[in-house]
Amino acid sequence: MLFTPLHRYLGRQPGPLTDEMINDAVEAGVEEADDLDWKKNLIDAKDLVNSDFPKDVAAMANRGGGVLVYGVKERQGVAFDRCDAGLADENYQRTLTRVAVSRISPPVFGLRVFPLGSGDRRAVVVVIPAGLDGPHLVFRGEMFGAPVRNGPDTEWMKEREIEAAYRARFDSRQHADTALDNLYQELAYGKTTESHAWVIAVAAPRTPATAPSAPTQDEAQAMFRAARDHGRFFAGNGVVHAFDSMDLLNPRVGLRRWTAANIAHLPQDRWKRAWGNLHHDGAVTLAAVLGGAPNGPDTYLPDTRIESNRVEATIADFMSLLLAVSQARGTSEYAVKIGIEWRTGEPLIIQTTGDFGFVFDGGSIPLARYTPVTATVTADAEPIDFHWQIHGLATDCINQGGINNVRLISPPASG
After folding, report:
1. GO molecular-function annotation terms (predicted)?
2. Which terminus, N or C, of the chain has the lesser number of Cβ atoms within 10 Å?
């Protein structure tokens, strides 16, 4: 759910950006600020690279994020009239996001562009996330500089400010790594790893949620159900999904989170137990049993022998939960950690299925320990790019066991 500085200055609840909001801001004479900049016309696409646009984006990112609003006239920083910003079609929007990546160092990812209005009153709102790796630098002639917003103006950081920004970046990364490890240890704690192999998957947002308040139970339910649908799209219906074993319709409240609890309670269903959590800060966690799946009538695989397609489906479900939260809460970039935990004393075997449907484990590597896979995921990437991120994580997770054929997650061809 979107919550921008424009929402805040107008006293609006989280929700979509609308053309009416631009009218209301003009009528109210909303002033420019650290996180709000009024602009009249869009810059021609061919001129964007050498324009002030990279500087404006970097300055907002260095101050904590904000919005550029095109199609509004201002007088001494106060909005007083509408004008036509120009056309922002899909190609132009992609150009904006590319410039934010290619002309700023480190790049500013997660830019979102919203064309509004019509006729001669077209507006475009560019939502800029808080910088994750500040200070973000742009060229000043033949040198780099770090712009930053100061009220309605853009200034250049002094040496001490740049030093402080780098220190904040390194502290932030250390904090993020610690938070991710804590999520992982918390989720793994108490799981019956002495009798089953479990996948433990956690994701912590590197960008704060734009939604200002904790999700309600109805909102949590909607996110879980959206995630279930995403998971079936990414990995198909021909495999057991973690969501099949969760109570998605009645998420339970927890410590700053909502939990979809396990509903696979029967002894014969112990091989498909699963839990999912949506944390109020946008973090996502999922735990699911992978070992001991059925292997024929009334027979089951050993608890440390797992099928690669179950690994793929569980990763698809986890990433689908991350995607649903991102779309609802406004998070964009995540640090991710996925591992498999067991303590039976037996090595873990990941097996796959050959082209003719027969079980194949000739290339499997018995694992005494599984090294967790870590990655940075861009949740608001283009759909095909997000699909490839799931494929990449699944590849890393099964490759560790000597399996190289990802069978379920097949991103469509680009172009």
Report:
1. DNA binding
2. C
